[in-house]
């Protein structure tokens, strides 16, 4: 009965392995974010472009002195992006419009299913249960694939460093504040209450409530609620989102869903190819069996 | 070298020199010349002067990149994190190196031994292309000394790049083993060669697996950037197939290209077997490349139709895309088809050059030129980045030439294999039958005018 037991064990083991990874009956599950995830709601209709969030971030994260002071309004001439020296920037849009200009703060949006995390081959990124996307610069190789993958063009790289260039980006003040339940520095300092810190689920409700009670002030869309699988930073706006620097073409699927076609094909190739090509090799051998290497084929090329 | 051979120099193609003495490794390294003769022929070669000029400027700048950092050497842009080193060096070199697994498959799996004269060149082309793709990668990585991290320190197995890293590493080892047979012959270590021959089938099959997956994976890397890569170069479902399929003609045409260059400028190093087989092999490779190109153009069209991207063709980017497809793929398809049917080798080779150009252009387009197409300004790589890319490519050429000059890649190493064979009555070898001749005493002075 030994053999039967062995086969039984094989069968059970194989089934367990096959079933182990599947959590739903139909496909790999999608991750909707941690239930207790925190977030920030940005109301762009309230932002006045004072840049105090930039200053607070700079101080909290001990970033280098900026080229010009944080009171300098000339930086608004060109739209900027987060870099290794500034984890958040405020941009000015719709300068000539009546009721303008409109300001928008840019920083890491802390996606539920971050593209940076799924593209990192040393697993440097972590999505914490508080919703922050943090990273371990100790293992960063500097391939910059996360910068390619990020749909919001957020991560910056300190190219200037020779011995230890790593990715730098907003971490929602995870180490110093979020871990102990405090809001990030930028939220704390905002004089206009343009930034609201709270549980992501609550913020979505608040956002929709604001839209409902003030339909003329807001567009009926909460940016970040569904985009790329949802983000921890949510935006309300009175102007079209594409006019204030958002990419309107982003799908509601997380970035990794684009890659799943390929990732699913990998184990198939790994397991099918050996048999397939060894089989072809067996089939293509001549009956004489004498067709070894280094012997001239007797057939002429047609 | 040509002149020296004219003056009666015997080319090193067997373990013994003309007087029947066993050659030392140093003699083999010096191509059977005395050191002064060797230097003389090196100085006489005008190509070496060009290389020397490139290295004089390029090597200090290449070293400078590691001393002063990436910002000094490259554009260091946050919006274009991958510049020339990866866009050209990695993404374009790797598809041109798919030749190793294809010729390996043809010879070892399908038993097409008629392609053997060119098999080793294809294997070497694969090995060097991969190796220098890794060199480019080391120049580009922020912390190159951490390159082994995905293998030993920290795993991100869900990432496509993880697969690329592992596959390039393992495939490099496989290719080293495949090319090592030539090295073992040259160094005189038949046991090693026999050992590798024993596992050739396994090596070849793993070569197919690794190549399929990571040629595809290089394409799949861009599926992380929907919206950044221009839609005409992007396809969520087929990106990996586009890259994989276009790498097949890319690799075959690279072998045609390299063999042409070797035939033209290294005629003394090729033996009769290679010269006689070259046209026939080229036709076979071109046939294969034509199939690959036809398939590629088809699946490109399917990709456009699948996501309904026809409207993009009516834009500046669309015209650029059509230029790439027409000049880089359709034109070579026509040229090579015509060349194969009329047996016009020049036309085939022109088509092969165009294919290499097309594959390189496709990769550079995907990684750099059309990347971030929505952003207002395009990225022009700064001069140091260009110089470093050129320098690494020049090193690649030098290493390539160094190996081709010495190892039995383009010629057959003439020695008696120490194999136990059934003794037969010695008959005159049949025409076309390659029998190892005992001792090399041939002087190439009475060879054809191609020398």
Automatic annotation (TrEMBL), chain A:
Annotated Gene3D superfamilies: 3.30.70.20
Cofactor(s) listed in the protein's UniProt record: [4Fe-4S] cluster
Record: residues binding [4Fe-4S] cluster 1: 47, 50, 53, 190
Compartments where found: Cell envelope
Gene Ontology MF term list: 4 iron, 4 sulfur cluster binding; metal ion binding
Binding site residues for [4Fe-4S] cluster 2: 57, 170, 173, 186
UniProt: [4Fe-4S] cluster 4 binding residues: 120, 140, 143, 146
Domain 4Fe-4S ferredoxin-type: 38-67, 131-160
CDD domains reported for this sequence: HybA_like
Single biological process term from Gene Ontology: cellular respiration
Keywords recorded for this protein, A-Z: 4Fe-4S, Iron, Iron-sulfur, Metal-binding, Repeat
Cellular compartments per GO CC: cell envelope
Keyword check for Metal-binding: yes
Stored InterPro entries: 4Fe4S_Fe-S-bd, 4Fe4S_Fe_S_CS, FDH_Electron_Transfer_Unit, Formate_DH_Fe-S_su
Note accompanying the cofactor annotation: Binds 4 [4Fe-4S] clusters per subunit.
Protein known as: Menaquinol oxidoreductase complex Cbc7, iron-sulfur cluster-binding subunit, putative
Gene transcribed to yield this protein: cbcH
From TrEMBL, chain B:
Transmembrane residue ranges: 47-68, 80-101, 121-139, 159-187, 199-225, 240-263, 284-305, 317-338, 350-371, 383-404
Biological processes per GO annotation: anaerobic respiration
Membrane topology note: Multi-pass membrane protein
A GO term from the CC aspect: plasma membrane
Keywords: Cell membrane, Membrane, Transmembrane, Transmembrane helix
Domain of life: Bacteria
Keyword field contains Coiled coil: no
Record localization: Cell membrane
Annotated protein name in UniProt: Menaquinol oxidoreductase complex Cbc7, cytochrome b subunit, putative
The organism of origin for this protein: Citrifermentans bemidjiense (strain ATCC BAA-1014 / DSM 16622 / JCM 12645 / Bem)
Taxonomic lineage from the root: Bacteria, Pseudomonadati, Thermodesulfobacteriota, Desulfuromonadia, Geobacterales
């Amino acid at each position: 009965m030994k053999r039967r037991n062995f086969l039984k064990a094989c069968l059970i083991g194989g089934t367990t392995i096959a079933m182990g990874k599947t959590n739903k009956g139909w496909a790999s599950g999608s991750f909707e974010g941690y239930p207790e995830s925190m977030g920030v709601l940005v109301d762009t209709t309230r932002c006045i472009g004072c840049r105090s969030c930039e200053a607070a971030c700079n101080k909290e994260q001990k970033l280098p002195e900026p080229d010009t002071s944080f009171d300098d309004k000339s930086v608004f001439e060109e739209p900027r992006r987060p870099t290794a020296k500034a984890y958040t920037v405020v941009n000015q849009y719709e300068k000539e419009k009546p009721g303008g200009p409109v300001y928008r703060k840019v920083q890491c949006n802390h996606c539920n299913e971050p593209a940076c995390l799924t593209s990192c081959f040393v697993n440097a990124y972590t999505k914490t249960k508080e919703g922050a996307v943090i990273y371990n610069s100790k293992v960063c190789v500097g391939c910059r694939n996360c910068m390619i993958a990020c749909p919001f063009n957020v991560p910056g790289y300190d190219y200037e460093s020779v011995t230890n260039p790593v990715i730098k980006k907003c971490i929602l003040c995870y180490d110093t504040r979020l871990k102990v339940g405090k809001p990030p520095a930028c939220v704390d300092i905002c004089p206009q209450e343009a930034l609201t810190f709270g549980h992501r689920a609550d913020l979505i409700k608040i956002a929709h409530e604001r839209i409902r009670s003030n339909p003329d002030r807001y567009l009926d869309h909460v940016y970040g609620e569904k985009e790329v699988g949802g983000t921890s930073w949510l935006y309300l706006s009175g102007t079209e989102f594409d006019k204030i620097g958002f990419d309107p073409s982003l799908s509601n699927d997380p970035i990794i869903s684009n890659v799943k076609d390929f990732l699913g094909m990998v184990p198939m190739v790994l397991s099918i190819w050996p048999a397939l090509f060894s089989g072809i090799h067996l089939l293509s051998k001549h009956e004489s069996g004498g067709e070894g290497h280094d012997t001239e084929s007797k057939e002429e090329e047609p | 070298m040509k002149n020296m051979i004219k003056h009666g120099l015997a080319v090193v193609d067997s373990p013994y020199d003309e007087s029947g003495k066993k050659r030392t490794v140093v003699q083999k390294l010096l191509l059977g010349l005395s050191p002064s003769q060797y230097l003389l022929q090196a100085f006489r070669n005008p190509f070496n002067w060009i290389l020397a000029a490139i290295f004089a400027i390029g090597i200090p700048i290449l070293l400078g990149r590691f001393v002063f950092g990436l910002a000094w050497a490259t554009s260091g842009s946050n919006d274009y994190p991958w510049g020339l080193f990866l866009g050209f060096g990695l993404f374009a070199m790797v598809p041109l190196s798919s030749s190793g697994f294809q010729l390996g498959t043809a010879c070892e799996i399908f038993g097409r031994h008629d392609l053997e004269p060119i098999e080793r060149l294809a294997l070497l082309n694969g090995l060097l292309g991969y190796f220098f793709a890794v060199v480019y990668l080391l120049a580009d990585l922020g912390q190159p000394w951490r390159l082994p991290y995905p293998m030993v320190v920290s795993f991100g197995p869900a990432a496509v790049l993880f697969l690329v890293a592992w596959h390039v590493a393992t495939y490099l080892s496989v290719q080293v083993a495949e090319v090592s047979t030539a090295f073992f012959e040259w160094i005189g270590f038949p046991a090693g060669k026999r050992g590798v021959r024993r596992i050739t089938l396994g090596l070849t099959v793993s070569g197919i697996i690794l190549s399929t997956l990571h040629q595809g994976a290089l394409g799949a890397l861009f599926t992380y950037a929907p919206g950044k890569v221009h839609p005409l170069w992007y396809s969520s479902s087929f990106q990996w197939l586009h890259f994989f399929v276009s790498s097949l003609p890319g690799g075959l045409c690279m072998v045609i290209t390299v063999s042409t260059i070797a035939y033209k400028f290294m005629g003394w190093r090729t033996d009769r077997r290679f010269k006689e087989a070259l046209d026939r092999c080229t036709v076979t490779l071109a046939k294969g490349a034509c199939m690959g190109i036809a398939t590629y153009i088809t699946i490109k069209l399917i990709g456009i139709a699948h996501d309904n991207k026809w409207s993009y063709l009516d834009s500046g980017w669309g015209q650029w895309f059509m230029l790439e497809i027409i000049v880089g793929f359709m034109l070579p398809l026509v040229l090579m088809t015509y060349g194969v049917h009329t047996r016009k080798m020049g036309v085939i080779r022109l088509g092969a050059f165009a294919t290499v150009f097309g594959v390189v252009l496709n990769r550079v387009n995907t990684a750099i030129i059309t990347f971030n197409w929505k952003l207002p300004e395009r990225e022009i790589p700064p001069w140091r980045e260009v110089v470093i890319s050129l320098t690494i490519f020049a090193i690649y050429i030098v290493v390539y030439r160094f190996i081709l000059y010495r190892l039995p890649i383009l010629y057959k190493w003439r020695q008696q294999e120490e194999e136990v064979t059934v003794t037969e009555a010695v008959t005159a070898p049949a025409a076309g039958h390659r029998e190892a001749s005992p001792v090399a005493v041939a002087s190439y002075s009475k060879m054809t005018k191609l020398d």
